[in-house]
Sequence to fold (739 residues):
Amino acid sequence: MRDDHAGFETASREKVADRRLAIQLHVSTGNSLAKTASLIEQTPQWQALRAHARQVKLHTLTHLDEYVQRFAAAAERNGATVSWAATGEDACAQTLAIARQHGVRRITKAKSMTNEEIGLNEALEAGGLEPVETDFGEMICQLAHVAPSHVTAPIIQWSIEEVARLLARTGFVDAIPPELQPGGGALDRSARLSAAARLVAAARVRLREKFMTAGMGISGANFAVADRGALVLVENEANIRLTTTLPGVHVAVVGIDKLIPRTADLGTFLTLLPVAATGQRQTSYVTFLRKPLGRLHIILLDNGRLNVLADEQHFDLLSCIRCGACMNACPVYRHVSGHGYEAVYPGPIGAVLMPHLQPGRAYEELPFASSLCGACTEICPVGIPLHERLLEWRERVVGRGERSRLEAAAFAGWTWLMTHPTIYRSGRPPAAWINAMAGWFAPVKQWQKTRELPQVAGESFAQWWRKNRDA
Amino acid sequence: MGRSSDSPHGVSNQAPTHSAAPQRRVSLFVPCYVDQMFPRVAQSTVKLLDRLGVACEYDARQTCCGQPAFNSGYADEARRVAEHFVRVFADCETIVAPGGSCVSMVRNHFSHVLGREERVTHCVRELCEYVVNELGVTNVGASLPGRAALHMPCHMLRELDGAGPVRELLSHVRGLEIVDLPCDTWCCGFGGTFSVKYPELSTAMAETKLQQMRDAGVEYLISPESSCLMQLASVLRRVEEPARQDRALRTIRPFHVAEVLAGLGTCA
Ligand code: SF4
Fold:
């Protein structure tokens, strides 16, 4: 998919060098995390809800074929057309065919990571169609030709000023509001916010035109409820509602991981998702879409998900509800942003999911790019033990002999030494030698690139103990 | 919980050194990097436990808990080192270590690494946990005047009992004020081989944390984990040493909790 994949080591280094990026990300994710934390505190049943969500998801995943069938049958009874797509290309081709069949040119699009995953915009454009992103953040990404850098906050690293400049440059608004211009007294927070609100209002007028003239709307879904054949979509801007109801044709591309068995389970997920995602008790709109107004095509997408499902150790990764909380909590994400990962799903969940969805070596570095602090596991609303999955990936990659020979040899030597205590104790050269020679070794050189080297003590604790205590 | 510090040695009156009871004995587990690079932390541990009436034993056959290999995906290597650990500590009743990360490795990950349950995995205690939860001592009579930030290692925070015991002990250190900061729960960026593989990223993580501490004007950085302190101190020295020369910058001094509690009062 990404031929230009530079690898985490290279891409992240460039992001780390930009200190402003980390500052902006820490502010944005910090605000979100603080709101989430305070809501969790006010929700005494939070842990019970998490456990319930995990149990429902694991049950669904272990009976997925049954629920997919049940969902498809119920949705067809409701009047939808349900089809299956094994790959992303397949889903894109089906969408394109539906558009052609209805003679559509302009297509409004609701925010959907699944559609990012399969590269739907590129496919539609290549087919001569005009896809229009209608979520504000996604719209900015589309105008700027960049990928979203977070699953729920696509332009998390942008300042209001940058957004204003882009909108003016692309003709989406007539001019940059004066408060947001350089030297416009932009330091006042409330002035900036009101200018931003005017900017959004102006963009909304432009989008309204697109909504009214689009022949087709495309969305994903947050949940697909098997018992009623319903799609559930969660949002704050109402663009999803307009996308799914205004045009006469609606295509929903739904990953099979979105299934939940019963409408009764929705309460749990609709409580967890907004709190974890944006620190809101509830989002502004929840759309429960059952009987279509016009034509509704639901494309059920595999695109690697069945492989994850077949993985006994990792199938629970499919219980992810894409809230993005693990990204907010992750210290690595907070320094490199989504773009440092060069993956549709960044952050901790991306690091464990991407090597499954796009096998091959490209994403297998990601599980190593973590300090294993466990903040992701702690926050995940559906209880995925993300840091354990990271560790398991490392074990798999090492087990296949895919790490460097030097590293493997170093660990072999170290293991031998650690299991031969007499030699470990007696064989140590004087500390002064070690400290003087340390700089010759590659790992030490790496350490010293950015930090001072800690020194080996002249006398180890074991030596001190022998002298002072053992006598 | 004992809170008084009137006893001659500044130790809580309720320290369980009751004359009729046999003296408590613990086995020390000194993590490999503490042994080689921060022996003072282990010496402080011995000194503190001495003062609390706990006798320490130390078996010099001990090496490492296997965590570096485990975290890097080398399962076989981790298992062999873990087996060595189990052999050395097989007969021990209580094992105390001045470092939460290795304690968590033994307690939470050994059964997985070894593929079986071992009695010793239930015997390991992090130093502060042991002092507060098992000795019932919260005031060890130490003093350190100044403002400090507390850095909790991720493993202790999320896989052991959290910050409770450490905070409890530090709250009774005379003159010491622990400043609460948003960065208290952020990772220091060490992560073993992670810090070597991604030096810029690892350092940036430390630097983001340290900046908040500088802004808060703390004088000390206290942590119950030497590996985190090693990372943070290495970054501090690289960043601050050149700066200090031209603008008399005040440096943040790193301490291990054991050093503070034992009253050694010198830099880690
Ligand atoms: S893994 Fe958990 S925290 Fe991360 S996006 Fe998915 S549901 Fe949210």
Observations:
- The pocket of iron/sulfur cluster is lined by residues A 276, 320-326, 349, 379-382, 384, 386 (CB under 6 Å).
- The CA atoms of residues 110 and 116 of chain B lie 8 Å apart.
